[in-house]
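Thread: "does anyone have the structure for this chain?"

Original post by V.I.:
We have the sequence but no experimental structure in hand. Need at least a predicted one for the grant figures.
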Amino acid sequence: MIRIGVIILPERDWDTDRKRWERADCYGFDHAWTYDHLAWRTLADGPWHATLPTLVGAALTTSRIRLGTLVTTPNFRHPVPLAKDLMTLDVMSRGRISVALGAGAPGYDSAVLGGEELSPARRHARFVEFRGLLDRLLSQPVTNWSGDWYSAVDARMIPGPVQRPRPPFLVAADGPRGMRVAAAGARRPGDGWVTMGTRDRGLEEAAWWRDVARTACRMDETLEGAWPYVRMLNMESGTASLSSVDHLRDRLGRATELGFTDVTIAWPRKDQPFRGDEALLDAIAAELPDLRRIGVAAGSSSPPHPVS
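Reply from O.Q.:
Generated one for you, tokens below.
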């Protein structure tokens, strides 16, 4: 079975946005996510609310669905206050939080605090320490740390998260260094890997799936048989034009063929990005039990998807 989640951008005031989170819970989606940015792409000059307060509202509004950040990076976050916020969020949600983590890319989030622009190698080194310290902070009551990028002196996380030893981490990675971090760190239930399948946006669907297949193959080679618990495909760039339940069914089959255990789709918007009709969610929700049962056999009826 494949788990299906939805991405809800934090662009609406809470009086109206709470209804979307309530609907996601009632629809039966397995998880719901919001992006962890200070500003984002073409929506940077429009309304955009903070990620963790939004998830607090979602936690208090919903009762079943898992909630998460997609993706949290070191670009503007320090592990110590982040861990305290995530600990509290996990308590308030009664243990329904997952955290997708990534190295962070150049752009507004990395420049807004006025820091130097980092090379890819230095961003990776910072991320390895960021993830390691966050892991430790959320797994024990008191942490001391002195590293190349961060320090923590008697950092207390009491009472600790509901999920022990900590909420699940999903490492976002498309390249070999990030994939090695994801593979090495996936040692606890719910941990794993998340990818968009490609760094190129605006690809035609066939080209997008070829890139996804290449990325999945690279992860298979990195794992060398030791699979993480979760392999999640963020179909944001591949589902901006999601047109029907059958369209989603085909994509779920393809994702399952490539070894993904989870997918996310974007909540439709009136304009790009993710332009679509919200009524499609009603149709998807009505068939979620059957959609989840799509497996290799269901996906194998589709044409093959070459990786070269």
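V.I.: this helps a lot. The CA atoms of residues 5 and 264 lie 4 Å apart.
O.Q.: and The longest helix spans residues 120-139.
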